[in-house]
Automatic annotation (TrEMBL):
Keyword Transferase: yes
InterPro entries tied to this protein: AcetylCoA_hyd_C (IPR026888), AcetylCoA_hyd_C_sf (IPR038460), ActCoA_hydro (IPR046433), ActCoA_hydro_N (IPR003702), NagB/RpiA_transferase-like (IPR037171)
Pfam families: AcetylCoA_hyd_C (PF13336), AcetylCoA_hydro (PF02550)
Organism: Desulfatitalea alkaliphila
One BP annotation, GO: acetate metabolic process
Keywords: Transferase
A single MF term (Gene Ontology): acetate CoA-transferase activity
Entry protein name: Butyrate CoA-transferase
Lineage start: Bacteria, Pseudomonadati, Thermodesulfobacteriota, Desulfobacteria, Desulfobacterales
Domain Acetyl-CoA hydrolase/transferase C-terminal: 283-439
Family statement drawn from the similarity comment of this UniProt entry: Belongs to the acetyl-CoA hydrolase/transferase family.
Keyword Transferase annotated: yes
Length: 464
């Protein structure tokens, strides 16, 4: 059997982005990627073909940019768009098209559901340049890339020269023999994420978490991105903890800072020991350069990183995620706010995955913290009941800790009466009396209750 040298095969399969986009025909279903790995050059030419096409399904996730095809077809008459996780850049299009564009799933389930339910015509997958063995590394985004490739009739890799090669545990690369076409992207740089400044509320919430001793020597961390998570990670540098590990769906710059400071060394992990594990990365060029071919990292698909059964095996697993609203019985809403036309903000993502994983922790030391600002535009984010149309991301039966800038409460094991009192105590002071009355009216407080000086049961720390 004759084997064509990889470089010759590469030359045979290389086409222009215009030619790659011309492959899309009416009625097709395609995938454009997600996070730092969206095929922007394909998106650009796809938008220009709006008048030639109809009934084209376009799938994405973690939309870090406003897609050109959405701007070209704002009403969705040509492109039927669906996303696995919605970010700020596409929020106006979600409001216009409706929340039906969201593909709702707890993220660890996504690869299996893709393999079971999807049959795509083309997947456009962003990669690093081909290596000497003929492999294209998926770079910063492993997530569900391989699953999309496996259910596609054609695979087009979109090569970016500045995409780092990220060491993987599994499914981190695709071989040229499995690829139909190759496009070189010389137009778009791999996107970076600017530093998000912390607010005073972020620092107060971080202090509530760290001062409570929830993160100890040997803790394994899952923390997202934003001013609040960054404040927690900053506080750990001065907290004196050591031998921390990282097992997180997302890798961020602040995690890199903890590694450089010697706070994270992954030495206490029992799986992927001495490696920081993650499923996708968004951050600075500095972080991307540090990741490039660095064997102290291991990227995995999201059905490994976010599997509650894998999370449960991490020592002292600690998970911190942000939410938008919590009602007085502990139901958590992190993705869609209610109303006659509900507003979809983001997605389930991995929040429920890590809540379940910490709950199932083999060492019985798993901790899940759900954080929120006490107010938004003068209205309490701790509410008596969730409005019609609000989506519950974490049910009350699974919630562990809830934290605001006014305190930290552990809800697990509390009665509904005790939950209401604990949540009212960590609400903004200006809303507490109203929440107390609303709790009585709703029947959550079955007995005479007042907000005394002594913190209610479940409240770990609090301030006024």
């Amino acid at each position: 059997m004759n084997h064509i040298p990889f470089n010759d095969l590469y030359a045979q399969k290389r086409i222009s982005p215009e030619a790659a986009t011309a492959m899309v025909k009416p009625g097709m279903e395609i995938f454009l990627g997600g996070a730092a790995s969206i095929a922007h050059n394909i998106d650009k030419y796809l938008a220009r073909r709006k008048d030639e096409l109809h009934n084209v399904v376009v799938r994405t996730f973690l939309d870090t940019a406003e897609h050109e095809f959405l701007k070209a077809d704002p009403d969705g008459k040509v492109f039927r768009w669906h996303s696995g996780f919605l970010l700020h850049s596409v929020r106006s299009h979600v409001q216009r098209r409706g929340s039906g564009v969201y593909q709702g799933v707890s993220w660890h389930m996504a690869p299996e559901l893709i393999r079971q339910n999807y049959n795509l015509d083309i997947s456009y997958v962003v990669t690093a340049p081909m290596d000497k063995h003929g492999f294209f590394n998926f770079g910063l985004t492993i997530a569900e890339m391989q699953a999309f490739c496996e259910v596609s009739k054609k695979i087009v890799v979109v090569v970016r020269k500045d995409m780092p090669v990220v060491c993987g545990g599994q499914e981190e690369a695709i071989h040229i023999s499995a690829v139909d076409h190759i496009v070189e992207d010389d137009t778009f740089a791999t996107p970076t994420l600017p530093a998000i400044p912390a607010k005073e509320e972020d620092r107060l919430i971080a202090d509530n978490v760290v001062s409570a001793g929830l993160i100890q020597d040997g803790t394994t961390l899952q923390i997202g991105i934003g001013g609040l998570p960054n404040s927690v990670l900053d506080a750990l540098v001065d907290a004196g903890v050591k031998h921390l590990g990282i097992h997180s769906e997302m890798l961020t710059d602040k995690m890199y800072d903890l590694i450089q400071a010697g706070v994270v060394d992954n030495s206490r992990k029992t799986m992927d020991r001495y490696k920081s594990t993650f499923s996708f990365c968004l951050g600075s060029r500095r972080l991307y350069d540090f990741l490039d071919n660095n064997p102290s990292f291991a990227s995995y698909p999201v059905d490994y990183v976010n599997s509650p059964l894998v999370i449960a095996q991490q020592p002292r697993m600690f998970s911190l995620n942000s939410t938008m609203q919590v009602d007085l019985v502990g139901q958590v809403a992190s993705e869609q706010l209610g109303g006659d036309r509900p507003r979809h903000i983001s997605g389930t993502g991995g929040q429920l995955d890590f809540v379940m994983g910490t709950l199932f922790a083999h060492d019985r030391k798993g901790i899940s913290v759900l954080a929120l600002y006490s107010e938004h535009k003068g209205k309490s984010r701790i509410v008596p009941t969730l409005a019609k149309g609000t989506v519950i991301t974490v049910p009350r039966s699974l919630v562990d800790y809830v934290v605001t800038e006014y305190g930290l409460a552990r809800l697990r094991g509390l009665s509904l009466n005790e939950r209401a009192l604990a949540l009212i105590r960590i609400a903004h002071p200006r809303h507490r009396e109203a929440l107390l009355k609303q709790a009585v009216d709703a029947g959550f407080l079955s007995y005479t209750s007042t907000l005394g000086a002594k913190p209610p049961r479940g409240v770990i720390n609090c301030r006024d």
